[in-house]
Amino acid sequence: MPQNKLDRVHRAGEARQQAPEGISSQPFLLETLIPASENGLGAMIAMLKPGTLTHWHSHPHGQILYVLSGIALVQCDGGPVEELHAGDSIRFEPGERHWHGSGATTSLAYLSVQAAHEGSAVAWFEPVTEGDRQ
User: Fold this and answer.
1) What span, in angstroms and rounded, lies between the C-alpha atoms of 93 and 76?
2) DSSP one-letter code for 37
3) In terms of C-beta density within 10 A (0-12 exposed, 13-18 middle, 19 or more buried), how is residue 112 classed?
4) d(CA 61, CA 95)
5) For residue 3, what is the DSSP state?
6) What stretches of 14-124 adopt beta strand conformation (E)?
7) What is residue 5's three-state secondary structure?
8) What is the β-pairing status of strands 29-34 and 41-48?
9) φ and ψ at 94, to 5 degrees?
10) pLDDT tens for each residue of 31-82
C-alpha cells in the first residue's frame, strides 16, 4: 500500500529538541526535518545561541551546511576559520574533521544535510580549543 503523501509533511517546530549533551560548547536546539534511516539521507535545522561551537566531528558521507540566518564560523582540520552569512553554504567531504558554530555576538540557524552509514551520520571528537581557532 502506498504511503500517504501527507505522512511525509513536516510541520515547523513539531520535532524540535535539545541537541545531545557533549557535542558542543553549550546546549542548542535541533529540529529534525528528515530522520536519517540506516543508510539514508537525513536533514535538520540547528539553532545556536551566540558563542556556541560544535565539537570536532566528521560525517561518513560528508555534510552540506546552509546558513539560514546569523553568522556561522566553520573550520576544517588544518584550515582557516571561515565566516559564512545567510544564504552561504559549505560542503564537507566524507570523513573530513570539522566544526561549525555561531559568532560570539550572533545567533545562528542552519540547515544540515547528511547521510548515515550503518546507522550513524556523525562521529564526534574533542571540543574546539582557542588554539584550534588560530
Assistant:
1) 10
2) -
3) buried
4) 7
5) P
6) 16-18, 29-34, 41-48, 57-58, 63-76, 82-85, 89-92, 98-102, 108-115, 123-124
7) helix
8) antiparallel
9) -55, 130
10) 999 887 766 889 999 999 999 999 999 999 999 999 999 999 999 999 999 9
Cα dihedral sign for 109, 19, 76, 73? positive
Q: How far apart are CA 10 and CA 7, in angstroms?
A: 8
The C-alpha cell of 75 is what? 573550520
Full-model pTM: 0.89
10 Å CB burial of residue 111 (0-12, 13-18, 19+) is: middle
- Which domains are delineated in the chain? 30-133 (2.60.120.10)
- Site of grid cell 502506498: 2
Pull the grid cell for residue 111: 540547515
Task: Confirm if 56 and 126 have CB atoms less than 8 A apart.
Answer: yes
